[in-house]
Amino acid sequence: MNETTGGIAMDDESEGTIKKFMYINRKAPYGTVYALEALEVVLIAAAFDQDVSMVFCDDGVYQIVKGQHTKFIDVKNFSPTYRALEGYDVEKLYVSKESMDERGLAEDDLLVDVEIVDNAKMADLMEDQDVVLSF
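RE: above sequence
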């Protein structure tokens, strides 16, 4: 019995283990809770010092487009929060080249620095993760 863990035996390897988490954002920023919930989960994981990366594909690319105006749909514009990710050491942001092309978007249209990758590279990045969550 181990007094410091309340009687639960823990090996040294389980303490401080860092996992690679990838969060895939596929939904438009407004109209559902997916985009905002994904952002909140990312911030929580980063606060626990996990290796966090984010992917924006499909309509999820709209989450990081500059100049979002939400006054007329009566919801809070949370897009500026993406600029705070760097302060949480979330610096691995990836965008699907194919999704950008399909929507006529360019890197200059985005409000944060990202790495634009094609589907093959995206598959390689996903393969390298411990956990992949899609929103």
